[in-house]
Design brief:
Blueprint lengths: L8 E6 L2 H7 L1 H9 L3 E7 L2 H10 L3 E4 L7 H18 L3 E5 L1 H13 L4 E6 L10 H16 L3 E4 L2 H9 L8 E3 L16 H11 L6 E8 L6 H11 L6 E8 L22 E5 L4 H5 L4 E4 L8 H8 L4 E4 L4 H4 L6 E4 L4 H12 L2 H18 L2 H18 L3
Parallel strand pairs: 1-2, 1-4, 2-3, 4-5, 5-6, 6-7, 8-9, 8-11, 9-10, 11-12, 12-13
Helix pairs in contact: 1-2, 1-3, 4-5, 5-6, 9-13, 11-14
Length: 391
């Protein structure tokens, strides 16, 4: 625990405001409860302002973009360095690839005693062209050289970091990932309450509902999701697709996805944006899917598992850690609409299988996805670093 007479000032910095809220919200609350004075900074956005207004965390908007832009990145680094000097942070903890690179370098230049990052997932992946992957590995190596420690959510990324010379032994440790297992749990909606919630959303109470939750970008697999739905409607006339998501004001150019021209009959697709009732929405589903192209450690699959849902996801890093193929759901190749539709159809056609997979998913969530263990690992890392660098 931090010294109560003189709280340790910590800055959590991210390029995307969604990282601060809702992803890190509970973690920041926990660290504040441990006695740390928590400050935040990100690209301007409504989610960061919401964290400031609802939870009282000081927040600074950053003149940062999510694209690589050397001149503006230099200006942003100078801004962050000035902020660190002014606020005299003892710890700067960064998130997101851009936040890690620019934020850590700036903190070092400002003389911040302790600099660390959470690696939520490498930007490079196995399907990327060799030259892009080489570029991003070089960027990650530069980022890691600024880190006193790297907390890594995914065990595959720990192996990659050591194999590719991004991090050294002892510099990186497995953090894992987790969610609130009390908020996301079976039984949030049952019987008539579930039917009524569906009715309010315009979903028939007896529909077979397949849901996808994520940022409204194509790489989350929304086009494949709709294509699989079109392929399945002939077999399952009561099929209903539920797309839940959000749009970032800082989204990369050309990345956004919109549901126009879905090709689905009217009344078979519901699109919801910026919702706080995710547990209830998961309970409106029969199958939870994530046909994403790249992931770090996907929260939506942890949340669906904790709610007792069977799942279908792509066979990529992150999804491999959250879905046990053939036990809690199915893994399919990326951008393979036929395989996606086949896996979803297998679950839609077998209620008993959905039940078995759902029970196994909840058990896996209880074993592996409790956020309280993650929070304590972060706090222990802070204690270890402060002891090593008392400053």
């Amino acid at each position: 625990m931090a010294d109560k007479t003189e709280p340790i000032r910590v800055l959590h910095l991210s390029a995307a405001d969604i990282m601060l809220f809702p992803i890190l919200r509970d973690q920041l609350r926990y660290l504040r409860g441990q006695g740390y004075e928590i400050h935040t900074a990100s690209i301007d956005g409504p989610l960061a302002r919401r964290l400031r207004d609802e939870d009282g965390f000081p927040w600074t908007p950053l003149p940062l973009t999510r694209e690589i832009a050397p001149l503006s990145d230099w200006r942003a680094a100078r801004f962050i360095a000035d902020l660190c000097r002014k606020e005299r942070f003892r710890i700067v903890h960064t998130h997101t690839p851009k936040g890690n690179v620019v934020g850590q370098w700036a903190a070092r230049k400002a003389g911040v005693p302790i600099v660390l990052q959470t690696l939520h997932g490498f930007y490079h992946h196995e399907r990327m062209s060799w030259w892009k992957r080489r570029l991003w590995v070089s960027i990650e190596r530069f980022s890691a050289r600024q880190s006193d420690h790297i907390l890594c959510q995914n065990p595959e990324d720990v192996e990659t970091a050591l194999r590719d010379g991004i991090a050294r032994e002892g510099q990186i440790s497995l953090l894992g990932n987790g969610i609130d297992l009390q908020r996301f749990r079976p039984g949030v909606l049952e019987g008539s309450a579930r039917a009524e919630y569906r009715r309010k959303l315009g979903i028939p109470p007896d529909a077979l509902v397949v849901g996808l939750c994520g940022r409204f970008v194509a790489e989350k697999g929304f086009p494949e999701f709709l294509a699989a739905g079109r392929a399945l409607l002939g077999r399952f006339p009561s099929l209903h697709l539920l797309a839940i998501g959000h749009r970032l004001t800082s989204e990369r150019a050309g990345a956004a996805w919109t549901p126009e021209r879905s090709g689905l009959p009217e009344g078979t697709l519901t699109v919801l944006q910026d919702r706080d009732d995710l547990p209830e929405l998961y309970h409106c589903m029969d199958v939870n899917v994530l046909p994403s192209h790249r992931e770090g450690f996907p929260r939506v699959l942890m949340e669906g598992a904790a709610c007792g849902l069977p799942q279908v996801a792509t066979r990529i890093r992150g999804c491999r850690q959250t879905v046990a193929d053939g036990e809690t759901g199915f893994l399919v190749p990326v951008e393979d609409v036929a395989a996606l539709a086949d896996a979803i159809g297998t679950l839609l056609g077998d209620a008993a299988l959905r039940g078995r997979f759902g029970c196994a998913a909840r058990a896996k969530a209880e074993r592996e996805f409790d956020q309280r263990r993650v929070f304590e690992r972060v706090a222990q890392c802070y204690r270890d670093l402060v002891a090593r660098k008392p400053g």
